[in-house]
C-alpha cells in the first residue's frame, strides 16, 4: 500500500542509537497503512514513543511517558538524561544509603533519534536529533543538542564514528551537505523547518499531536476541548501584564503613602518648634528679670532710704529739743531732792541712811545666793531630783559629785577606745568606698576586663605607633567562658589570669612595638607576643572535658592563634572530683575547687598545685571576657554595700562622740558642785540678817517729824526719778533716731549711684513682681521679697529650660524616627534639636511639592495602562464564550466533512459553565474598572484610593504564589473552564436527532466514538487546509491505546481516525493485536531482558517484526550489542 493517500507524509522508519535501554543502533520500519507496537508491561513500548516525542515535540511541552503519568497522577522520573544515560533500575549505595539510578552508559555518551517521513510519491525527509553528555554530566542543562532535517531516507548509523569524542557539528554538517540538509542546535529553528516540509501548519498542531499521544482515557467533550483543543487563553498573559504594570502603580501609591507617612512623622515639628520658642522666650525673660532684679531692688531701696533720711532728720531735731528741756527739769528736781535729803540727814544724824545701805547690801546678798542655788540645782538635776538645803544635804550632794567624777574616768577611757576603733573602721570604709567608686568609673569608661594601667598603656602605645587598639588586643579580650560553664568560671579565670593580660601584636608591628617599649619606662609589668598572620591548627582535643571546650572565641584575626595556644599550653582536663583527678595522667587536670595536677615527671613524682593567695570569688578580679559588663555589675553591687557600710560607720562615730559629750557635761557639772561652798547658797542666814536690819530702820524712822521729812524726801526722789526716766527715754529716743539716721545714711552711701536697667519693660516687670501680693513694700521686707521673686524667677527659668529640653527631646525623637525610616534624608537632616528648622522646611516641601507630584503620578498611572489592561481582561472574560464559539465553528466545518452516524453529522455547541467564584471575580473586576476612561482628579483622593485598593485586592491575588491563590487564578482566568460543550447529531436538513450533553449519559462505546470523532476533526482542523479532505501530515501516535476497551470500542475509534485519513501508530497490549490487525500492516513486539554481560546484569531492549498477514517472527537485535 505504498500509494495509500499519496502526498501525505507518514513515518516510514524509526532509527535509534543508545536511547534508554535500546543500547546500540536500531532501525525499525513503519508500515504506511498503520503500525502497531506491542509487548509486555515494562518492555519499552513507551520508551520508543518517547524517542519520537523527543524529535517532534517542543521542549517546553514535552512530557515523557505521558500516558502513564496521566494514570499515576504524578511525574514518573523519566527525562532526557535518563534516556541518554540508559537508566534502568534504582540501587542503594552501600556506603551512603542513598537511592540512585544505575546507568548503562556512565561516561561520555550520545543518543541519536531519527524519524523518516515518506509522502508515498517519492519524497522523503529524515528528522535527526542528537544529544550528548560528557563524562560526569547528569543535568538536563548540560546536554548538548543538534537537530537536523535531511532530504531522503538517511541512515544514522554512520554518525557513530563522528560522536566518539565530542559533538562535532562541523563534520556532521559536512557528512550531510547535500541539498535540503540543515542542522541547528536550536529546537525552534529545527521545528520551523520540518513543519514546512511535512505540512504541519503551526506549533499548536505539534502540541495537539503530542497531547493526542496520551489521549487513551478521553471520555468527555469538555476534557477534549479544554485540554486538547483550545489554546491557553490570553487572559493569563493579560493578567500577568496587568500584575507587572500594577507594580508601577503600587510603587506610585507607596510613594504617596510614603510621603504622607513622612508628613505625618514630621507633622509635630511646627507645634514643637512654637512650644520651644515660647519656652525660650519665657526663659530669656526670667533670666533677664533675674539679672535686673539687683538693680531694681537697689533703686527701690535707695528711694526708700532717701525718704527715710529726710524723715529721720526732722525727728532728730525734735528729739534733741525735747532732751534739752528735760535736762533742765532734772537739774531743778535734783537740787530739790538734795535739800530734802539734807533735812532728813540732819534729823537722824545719818543713821537711817546707813541702815538703808546695809539693807540694800543684804538684799543683794540674798539675790546672789539664790542665783547660785538655782545654778547648783540645774547642775545636779540629772543625778538627783532634790537635795536638802542644809550642811548635811550639801555634803551628800558633793559626795555624789565625787562619785560622778570617778565614774567619768572609767567610762571615758572605755568610750575613747570605742571611738578610736570606730574612727579607724569609718576611715577604712570610706577608703574602700572611694576605691570602688574610682574602679567603677574606670571600668565604666572602657569595655575590657584588663587592668586600667595596661589599658592606658595600650592606648598610648597605639596612639604613638599609629595602630588601632583593635589591632592590639589583650588575649583575654578574645575569649569568653561559655554561659553553660558558669560553675567553672572561677577556676578558669585563675588559670588564664596571667595569659589574659598578654598583649597580642601583629608580626608586622614587631619592630615598632619593640622600639616603643624599649625607649620608655612602662610603669608596670607588660608581656606581649608577636602573632603570625596564619596560626597553626589547634591541638586536637582528647576529651570533651578539656578546658578549650568551655571557651568561646571572638571573631578576630588573632583568635585562631589564641585557640591554638590554649589548646596546647592550657590543655587542662576539667574534672569534678579528686578521684577523677587521679585518673588523668597524660595531661594537666584541675578540679572545680582549683586543685591542679601535672603529668608524672620522669623521676616518678607527680606535681599538685593549689594557689589560694588571691580569692577569685567574684568577677572583680576577672580578666577573661570580651566585655566587662559582669565586672561592672559586681562593682556597682559592692559599691552600694561599701557606701552603706561607710554611712553606718560614720553614724557610729557620731553616736560615740555624742555619748562622750554627755559624759564631759556631767563631769563639768559635778566639778562645779565640788567647787561650790555651802555659804554661797545659804539664803536663810542672809534673809535673817536683812530682817534684823529692817527692824532697826523701822524703829528709828517711826517719829512724826522724821516721817514728815521722810515723806517730803520721798516725794522729791519720786519726781526726780520720774524726770530722770523721761530724760532717759528722751535721750534713748534721740539716740535711736540718730542711730537709725546714721545707719540709713551709711546704707544709702553704700548704694552709691543706682545702676540703670536698659530694658525698661523688664525693669517694670521686676518692680511689679516685687510689689505683687504686697500692700506696701518696705525697706525692711524688700530683701525677703527679693528672695521670693528671685526664687520664682529661677524656678520659671528652670521650668522653661526643662520645657526646652523636653521639647528638644521630642524634636530629636521626631527627627530620629524620621531618619530611621528614611535614612536617605540624612544628607540634609540630623537627629538634633538644632535641625528643627530644616525639618519644618522638609515638611513644607513635602506638603507643597512632593505630595502633589507623587499624587499626580499616582493618578496618572491609576488612569493609565493598568486599568486599561484590566478592562481588556474583563472584556476578554466577557467575550470568552463568543470567541470559543467562533473557534468551534471551524471545528464544526471540519465535522461536517465526515458523516458521524449514517448520513447524520455531528455539531458542537458551547454552553456557559461559569461558577459562582468566576462570576464574583468578573463582577469585582467590572466594578474596579468601571468608568475607567473617566479620569479621577486630584480633588478626589478618596475615590482614587478606593479604586487602588479595589485593583490591589484583585491583582495581589492574581500575582500571588500561594497554592490556594494559584488554584483560584487558574479557575477565574482559564476561560476554557468557563464553558462546557454539547454534541448535537444533526440530519442533513439541520434538525437535531440526538443531543450529547455529557458522556455520563452515553454508553462507553458511544462516548468513545463521540470524543475520538471530535479529536480526529480537531486534528484535521489543525493539520489540514480548509479545502483539504486529507491533511498533508498524517501520522498520529497513541500510547497504551484502548488498553481497557473492548474490541467494539476499539474498532469504533479506529474507524473514526481512518475515516479522517490518519496514519495510526499504536502502542498497545498483546490482547488487541487481532482487533487492530485490519487497521495496520506492520507490527513489532518490543522485548526486554537483563542478560549477564561481563559478569553483571545489563538491561537490553529489542524488538521482533511481525508480518501483517502471516505474522512470521523475525527477531532483530542490536547489531553492535554487547556479547
Automatic annotation (TrEMBL):
InterPro entries on file: P-loop_NTPase
Superkingdom: Bacteria
Biological process, per Gene Ontology: DNA synthesis involved in DNA repair; double-strand break repair; SOS response
Residues forming coiled coils: 309-372, 632-673, 706-747, 779-810
Annotated GO MF terms: ATP binding
Key words of the record: ATP-binding, Coiled coil, DNA damage, DNA repair, Nucleotide-binding, SOS response
Protein's UniProt name: ATP-binding protein
Regions crossing the membrane: none
Amino acid at each position: 500500500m505504498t500509494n495509500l493517500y499519496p502526498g501525505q507524509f507518514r513515518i516510514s522508519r524509526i532509527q535509534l542509537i543508545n536511547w534508554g535501554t535500546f543500547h546500540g543502533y536500531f532501525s525499525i520500519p513503519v508500515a504506511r497503512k498503520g503500525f502497531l507496537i506491542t509487548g509486555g508491561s515494562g518492555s519499552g513500548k513507551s520508551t520508543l514513543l518517547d524517542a519520537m516525542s523527543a524529535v517532534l515535540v517542543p521542549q517546553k511541552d514535552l512530557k515523557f511517558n505521558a500516558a502513564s503519568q496521566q494514570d499515576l497522577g504524578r511525574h514518573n522520573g523519566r527525562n532526557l538524561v535518563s534516556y541518554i544515560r540508559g537508566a534502568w533500575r534504582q540501587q542503594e549505595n552501600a556506603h551512603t544509603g542513598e537511592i540512585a539510578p544505575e546507568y548503562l552508559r556512565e561516561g561520555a555518551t550520545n543518543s541519536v533519534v531519527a524519524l523518516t517521513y515518506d509522502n508515498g510519491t517519492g519524497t522523503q525527509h529524515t528528522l535527526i536529533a542528537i544529544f550528548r553528555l560528557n563524562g560526569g554530566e547528569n543535568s538536563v542543562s548540560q546536554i548538548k543538542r543538534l537537530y537536523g532535517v535531511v532530504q531522503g531516507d538517511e541512515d544514522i548509523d554512520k554518525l557513530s564514528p563522528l560522536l566518539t569524542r565530542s559533538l562535532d557539528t562541523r563534520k556532521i554538517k559536512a557528512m550531510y551537505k547535500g541539498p535540503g540538509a540543515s542542522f541547528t542546535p536550536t529546537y525552534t529553528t529545527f521545528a520551523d523547518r520540518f513543519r514546512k516540509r511535512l505540512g504541519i501548519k503551526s506549533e499548536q498542531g505539534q502540541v495537539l499531536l503530542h497531547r493526542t499521544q496520551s489521549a487513551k482515557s478521553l471520555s468527555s467533550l469538555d476534557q477534549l476541548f479544554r485540554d486538547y483543543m483550545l489554546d491557553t487563553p490570553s487572559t493569563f498573559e493579560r493578567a500577568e501584564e496587568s500584575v507587572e504594570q500594577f507594580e508601577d502603580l503600587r510603587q506610585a501609591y507607596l510613594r504617596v503613602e510614603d510621603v504622607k507617612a513622612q508628613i505625618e512623622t514630621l507633622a509635630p515639628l511646627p507645634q514643637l518648634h512654637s512650644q520651644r520658642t515660647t519656652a525660650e522666650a519665657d526663659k530669656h525673660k526670667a533670666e533677664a528679670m533675674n539679672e535686673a532684679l539687683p538693680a531694681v531692688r537697689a533703686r527701690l531701696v535707695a528711694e526708700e532710704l532717701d525718704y527715710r533720711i529726710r524723715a529721720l532728720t526732722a525727728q532728730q531735731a525734735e528729739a534733741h529739743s525735747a532732751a534739752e528741756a528735760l535736762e533742765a527739769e532734772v537739774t531743778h528736781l535734783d537740787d530739790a531732792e538734795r535739800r530734802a535729803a539734807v533735812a532728813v540727814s540732819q534729823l537722824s544724824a545719818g543713821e537711817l541712811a546707813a541702815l538703808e545701805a546695809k539693807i540694800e547690801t543684804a538684799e543683794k546678798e540674798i539675790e546672789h545666793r539664790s542665783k547660785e542655788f538655782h545654778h547648783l540645782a540645774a547642775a545636779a538635776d540629772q543625778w538627783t531630783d532634790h537635795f536638802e538645803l542644809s550642811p548635811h544635804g550639801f555634803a551628800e550632794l558633793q559626795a555624789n559629785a565625787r562619785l560622778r567624777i570617778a565614774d567619768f574616768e572609767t567610762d571615758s577611757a572605755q568610750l575613747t577606745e570605742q571611738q578610736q576603733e570606730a574612727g579607724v573602721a569609718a576611715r577604712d570604709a570610706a577608703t574602700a568606698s572611694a576605691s570602688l567608686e574610682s574602679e567603677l568609673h574606670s571600668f565604666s569608661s572602657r569595655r575590657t576586663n584588663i587592668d586600667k594601667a595596661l589599658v592606658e598603656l595600650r592606648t598610648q602605645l597605639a596612639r604613638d605607633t599609629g595602630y588601632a587598639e583593635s589591632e592590639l588586643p589583650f588575649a583575654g579580650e578574645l575569649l569568653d567562658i561559655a554561659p553553660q560553664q558558669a560553675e567553672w568560671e572561677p577556676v578558669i579565670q585563675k588559670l588564664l589570669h596571667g595569659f589574659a593580660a598578654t598583649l597580642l601584636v601583629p608580626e608586622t608591628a614587631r619592630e615598632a612595638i619593640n622600639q616603643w617599649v624599649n625607649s620608655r619606662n612602662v610603669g608596670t609589668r607588660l608581656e606581649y607576643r608577636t602573632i603570625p598572620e596564619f596560626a597553626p591548627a589547634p591541638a586536637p582535643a582528647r576529651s570533651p572535658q578539656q578546658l578549650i571546650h568551655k571557651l568561646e572565641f571572638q571573631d578576630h584575626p588573632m583568635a585562631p592563634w589564641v585557640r591554638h595556644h590554649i589548646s596546647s599550653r592550657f590543655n587542662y582536663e576539667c574534672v569534678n572530683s579528686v578521684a577523677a583527678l587521679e585518673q588523668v595522667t597524660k595531661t594537666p587536670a584541675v578540679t572545680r575547687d582549683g586543685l591542679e595536677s601535672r603529668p608524672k615527671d620522669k623521676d616518678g613524682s607527680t606535681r599538685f598545685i593549689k594557689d589560694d593567695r588571691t580569692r577569685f570569688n567574684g568577677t572583680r578580679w576577672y580578666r577573661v571576657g570580651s566585655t566587662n559588663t559582669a565586672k561592672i555589675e559586681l562593682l556597682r553591687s559592692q559599691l552600694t554595700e561599701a557606701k552603706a557600710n561607710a554611712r553606718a560607720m560614720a553614724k557610729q562615730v557620731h553616736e560615740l562622740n555624742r555619748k562622750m559629750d554627755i559624759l564631759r557635761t556631767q563631769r563639768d557639772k559635778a566639778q562645779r558642785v565640788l567647787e561650790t561652798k555651802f555659804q554661797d547658797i545659804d539664803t536663810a542666814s542672809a534673809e535673817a540678817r536683812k530682817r534684823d536690819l529692817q527692824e532697826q530702820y523701822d524703829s528709828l524712822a517711826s517719829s512724826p517729824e522724821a516721817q514728815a521729812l521722810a515723806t517730803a524726801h520721798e516725794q522729791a526722789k519720786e519726781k526726780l526719778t520720774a524726770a530722770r526716766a523721761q530724760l532717759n527715754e528722751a535721750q534713748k529716743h534721740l539716740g535711736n533716731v540718730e542711730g537709725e539716721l546714721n545707719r540709713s545714711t551709711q546704707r544709702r552711701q553704700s548704694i552709691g549711684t543706682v545702676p540703670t536697667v536698659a530694658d525698661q519693660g523688664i525693669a517694670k516687670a521686676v518692680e511689679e513682681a516685687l510689689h505683687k501680693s504686697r500692700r506696701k513694700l518696705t525697706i525692711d521686707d524688700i530683701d525677703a521679697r527679693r528672695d521670693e521673686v528671685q526664687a520664682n524667677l529661677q524656678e520659671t527659668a528652670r521650668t522653661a529650660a526643662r520645657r526646652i529640653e523636653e521639647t528638644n527631646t521630642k524634636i530629636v525623637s521626631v527627627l530620629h524616627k524620621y531618619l530611621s525610616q528614611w535614612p536617605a534624608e540624612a544628607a540634609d537632616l540630623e537627629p538634633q534639636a538644632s535641625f528643627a528648622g530644616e525639618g519644618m522646611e522638609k515638611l513644607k516641601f513635602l506638603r507643597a511639592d512632593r505630595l502633589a507630584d507623587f499624587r499626580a503620578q499616582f493618578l496618572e498611572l491609576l488612569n493609565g495602562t493598568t486599568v486599561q489592561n484590566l478592562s481588556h481582561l474583563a472584556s476578554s472574560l466577557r467575550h470568552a464564550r463568543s470567541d470559543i464559539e467562533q473557534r468551534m465553528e471551524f471545528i464544526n466545518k471540519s465535522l461536517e466533512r465526515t458523516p458521524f452516524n449514517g448520513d447524520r453529522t455531528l455539531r458542537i455547541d458551547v454552553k456557559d459553565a461559569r461558577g459562582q467564584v468566576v462570576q464574583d471575580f468578573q463582577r469585582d473586576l467590572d466594578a474596579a474598572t468601571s468608568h475607567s476612561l473617566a479620569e479621577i482628579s486630584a480633588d478626589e483622593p478618596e475615590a482614587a484610593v478606593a479604586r487602588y485598593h479595589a485593583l490591589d485586592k484583585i491583582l495581589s491575588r492574581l500575582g500571588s504564589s500561594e497554592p490556594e491563590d494559584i488554584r483560584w487564578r487558574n479557575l477565574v482566568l482559564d476561560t476554557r473552564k468557563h464553558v462546557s460543550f454539547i454534541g448535537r447529531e444533526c440530519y442533513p436538513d439541520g434538525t437535531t436527532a440526538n443531543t450529547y450533553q455529557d458522556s455520563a449519559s452515553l454508553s462507553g462505546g458511544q462516548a468513545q466514538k463521540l470524543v475520538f470523532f471530535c479529536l480526529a476533526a480537531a486534528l484535521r482542523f489543525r493539520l489540514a487546509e480548509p479545502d483539504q479532505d486529507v491533511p498533508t501530515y498524517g501520522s498520529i501516535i497513541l500510547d497504551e491505546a484502548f488498553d481497557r476497551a473492548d474490541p467494539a470500542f476499539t474498532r469504533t475509534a479506529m474507524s473514526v481516525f481512518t475515516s479522517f485519513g490518519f496514519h495510526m501508530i499504536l502502542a498497545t497490549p498483546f490482547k488487541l493485536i487481532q482487533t487492530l490487525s485490519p487497521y495496520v500492516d506492520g507490527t513489532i513486539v518490543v522485548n526486554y531482558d537483563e542478560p549477564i554481560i561481563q559478569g553483571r546484569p545489563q538491561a537490553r531492549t529489542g524488538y521482533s517484526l511481525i508480518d501483517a498477514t502471516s505474522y512470521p517472527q523475525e527477531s532483530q537485535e542490536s547489531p553492535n550489542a554487547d556479547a
